[in-house]
Amino acid sequence: MDREASELRALLRMIRDFGGSASWPVLVNNCSKYGIPLLDLKPLLEIAKQRGLIKEEAGVYTLVRAVRH
Fold first, then answer.
1. Is the Cβ–Cβ distance between 63 and 53 less than 8 Å?
2. Where would I find the beta strands (DSSP E) of the chain?
3. What does pTM read for this prediction?
4. In whole angstroms, what is the distance from residue 32 CA to residue 50 CA?
5. Which element (helix H / strand E) includes 10?
6. Strands 60-63, 21-23: parallel, antiparallel or unpaired by DSSP?
7. Is the pLDDT of residue 49 over 60?
8. Are 44 and 11 in contact (CB under 8 A)?
9. Helical (H) or strand (E) element with 7
């Protein structure tokens, strides 16, 4: 499995576990619990935004649509 895809799924799961939205500090503090290296967090958020999976407003990341696995 592609590492990026695996980490992206973990990121979406993390946001979902926090009720569908999470602030930057929450994501930073919990990324290691979901197996996401801290240095990969920001690029993963950008990929998810580009794909329309999440949106960012004032430092809060929110799921845009449900993703089936």
1. yes
2. 21-23, 54-57, 60-63
3. 0.88
4. 23
5. helix 3-17
6. antiparallel
7. yes
8. yes
9. helix 3-17
